[in-house]
Amino acid sequence: MVQQSFQLYDTTLRDGTQMAGLALTVDDKLAIARSLDALGVGFIEGGWPGAVPKDTEFFRRARTELDLRAALLTAFGATRRPDVAVSQDPQVRALLQAETPVVTLVAKSHTGHVDRALRTTLAENLAMIRSTVQHLVLAGRRVFLDAEHYFDGYVSNREYALEVVRTAAEAGAETVVLCDTNGGSLPEEVKAVVADTIAMTGAAIGIHCHDDTGCAVANTMAAVDAGAVHAQGTAHGYGERCGNANLFTVMANLVLKRGREVIPLERLVELEPTGRVIAEVTGIPRVPAAPYVGTAAFTHKAGLHASALRVDPGLYQHIDPARVGNAMRVLVSDMGGRSSVELKARELGYDVAAGSDAVGRAAARVKELESRGYSFESADASFALLLRAELAGHTPPAPFGVESWQVAVDGDGGAQASMGLRVAGTPRTATGLGREPVHALDAALHQALDPVFPALTGLRLTGHTVRELAGDRTAPPSVRVLLSFRCGDRRWGTVGVDRHATGAALTALLDAVHYVLSDAPERRRDTESLVAAPAG
Amino acid sequence: MVQQSFQLYDTTLRDGTQMAGLALTVDDKLAIARSLDALGVGFIEGGWPGAVPKDTEFFRRARTELDLRAALLTAFGATRRPDVAVSQDPQVRALLQAETPVVTLVAKSHTGHVDRALRTTLAENLAMIRSTVQHLVLAGRRVFLDAEHYFDGYVSNREYALEVVRTAAEAGAETVVLCDTNGGSLPEEVKAVVADTIAMTGAAIGIHCHDDTGCAVANTMAAVDAGAVHAQGTAHGYGERCGNANLFTVMANLVLKRGREVIPLERLVELEPTGRVIAEVTGIPRVPAAPYVGTAAFTHKAGLHASALRVDPGLYQHIDPARVGNAMRVLVSDMGGRSSVELKARELGYDVAAGSDAVGRAAARVKELESRGYSFESADASFALLLRAELAGHTPPAPFGVESWQVAVDGDGGAQASMGLRVAGTPRTATGLGREPVHALDAALHQALDPVFPALTGLRLTGHTVRELAGDRTAPPSVRVLLSFRCGDRRWGTVGVDRHATGAALTALLDAVHYVLSDAPERRRDTESLVAAPAG
């Protein structure tokens, strides 16, 4: 059933930007807005014009550069200041100058905040709400009202909180959004307060939650169950302190668990790709365990689960990951066994017989390498090379070898690598420049090998993570490097372990080269690193 | 009110280890167990003896090396296999050989799983439960029964699911734990199912949730509200796919929001330190936004929030962070203004007058540097140097300077730095070795400066992150490096921006040295990086 009246409202570009470590340029904001629009979100809160210069600029450029097809752009701001005529308030003027079809005003609904933060009277606060809402409605804007600190305010003074809602609705606010600003509420309370507020005011009610008790999504669901017709959140749950309600999780839950078409049904498969694109813009490391869109959301490691998944993926997954644009993955580790290796091999496109000796040998080799520090969870290409060697019965001869190498970094900048190789029997030297040693070595390899093996020209290093491994009684400390690559439209990773980071990086680089050169038949789609990796 | 009957149950060392990217040694597991015990957790599920060799070893060593003061150690395993006598089942024998006071058995409670995963009859499954529970009770063990896939099983065949619970309880299982194994449930359903199960069976009921709908914590709270007396979860919500219920969040919610003493009240202040210690053992990057324990959980960036927090921290925090061992932090960024700078300065121990010119100049300098790529959010020491220069009205003269440097990395391993400096007017050279260029430069600085400035001997580099910054029409691409340090018992960070990573790292290293040398009066406690950093 199409719920044309449900308002799915994204505040990534305003509340979300209050997240520690998140800093967006205007270009970033425009890109994110386009991405959210493509997903089918109903409203995009673009920022706080007048208060944040970058946001004033965003709304200015949005007028000519942002062509939204589904979403309505919203400008956020505060009610007029106490004892100032609304037409004289420069911040309100800035709201209108943003020229958005919708404006969202934030107002105090907690008597304590009216007193100590705003330092005005309860009556003046209501007047501020009334006059600002009316002013914007008269100017032709649709108006939403964010009732800040509503749930705490309701506990402190229920009558006044309800009066704030009535005042806003009577002045012309289309929806009054109840905000759990400090994030301290639990679902039971949210449900009761939302139900009472709807019953006592008759207003169209929205919900805006924060995750300080780990219940932002659940609080949002509870509010919708109680009759809220508007839900706010951010991409990936970005936001101040513990973040806002994760809007990806909320929309997937509403569509898949409550049967409410809060975005067009056919757009839900864009959920994971949208999450990926937005994370690339923000540079915030993705949380692998994020519901629905996380790289690990449908990733299985336990051998017992792998055995069951061979029978029926539904045995250990609550939905078909394809519905949200994600995919099932099986991890190969010392925790899995033959079943995991077999599932992984099939995932990579190898037609292996169940219970074959090669699968058993591959599983044993994985366990042995993992005990030395290797980790194949994010290194499908390295695993594929290992598997292929076991299937063939031997390691294929290498068409080239690296015999010596050195990297220098100095005050004039960057890293320079020099390398001695043997390519098809012929000695060669190569050099390369890069930001870090791994990039310089990568460049040197391409310099030496691309002319001989043109398939390598499409191979791009996209990221690296370095992990120190403590030694023990049997082995000295070592370093594990995971590299991620893009080759054509496919992405995969490799792993290397060595005494030092650069040696480990070179091992992983060489695996990538060998993988491309070995003409692999994998039909694997994107495999991203399952460990949160810093950009670059 | 002391709830001696509430069972707070941690499965970090068993279910938690199924998380992608998590690999623990036996030493790691022992360390984590001690940490959980110190926090006051009631039960620690140590692993699956017999099935996972590392876990068999863990229980063996635990007997002599693990001296638990509060918690009871639990061994996890499956009911006997179909059609095998319980005394003949080697896995059950392994459970007993673990010699734990408590054993937790997992059993199927979903008819679909009994049929397709176990491939046995519904009656035999009940017999497996009955005989295995009785066998362990007769051997003197306390027994818990994990009813796997309970919520899906209840929907599929309610009668059978209830029969599983009755069978386990009648056979002697002290608590029957209802598991939302696929994680697809929402709080409303969990509450109804738990309430019905308690009413229909009279058994002591526990709850075990996964976060696939983003509601694991809320589902757990709902179950406890409905009468569950036992709650399972993991540290930081570690676990397969989207993870298990975050036990830190659950226990803090139960104590602070429901007034239930599920751990000794005086231990709650150990929550954040415990989270930090366990994350150091696992090496999994901490999520800054994690409720209660996250580095960003009580971190405020918006200028508006900072203004209010100056008046009363309770205006934008749902609890006093000290109750969970955390602290309020204010971020300095282009989003804050004078209030943020002032709060931060006070946080660092500077007695600045509200509205002073120096604060205004510092705020302007921060905005200008941030537009060039700097980020002071995780770099308190760099910010302190900036602030001090504005307070003094000039940059203090430097006691030394670096005039040239070079770093080389080669196939024999590691990085070697050489440096030319001028120290108190005298030219000096220095060299240093390290895993990465930043470590080698750090070593060279110490070689040159420690003999002259002994205060530097306590300065330790503990981590670094590198972030590429795209250029724009006004500036070429650059790199931002954040370094974290420990000096004595204090931790703080510095930042550097340059065309290349190593140059940026040197800038940040020099800030750290200048910070230590400038004899700062800060009384700041730990400041950790607010951006998830890879180990090392």
From TrEMBL, chains A, B:
UniProt-listed InterPro entries: 2-isopropylmalate_synth_dimer (IPR013709), AIPM/Hcit_synth_CS (IPR002034), Aldolase_TIM (IPR013785), Citramal_synthase (IPR005675), LeuA/HCS_post-cat (IPR054691), LeuA_allosteric_dom_sf (IPR036230), PYR_CT (IPR000891)
SUPFAM superfamilies: 2-isopropylmalate synthase LeuA, allosteric (dimerisation) domain, Aldolase
Biological process per Gene Ontology, one example term: isoleucine biosynthetic process
Keywords recorded for this protein, A-Z: Amino-acid biosynthesis, Branched-chain amino acid biosynthesis, Isoleucine biosynthesis, Transferase
Superkingdom of this protein's organism: Bacteria
Catalytic activity: pyruvate + acetyl-CoA + H2O = (3R)-citramalate + CoA + H(+)
PROSITE patterns noted in UniProt: AIPM_HOMOCIT_SYNTH_1, AIPM_HOMOCIT_SYNTH_2, PYR_CT
NCBIfam families for this protein: citramal_synth
Protein name: Citramalate synthase
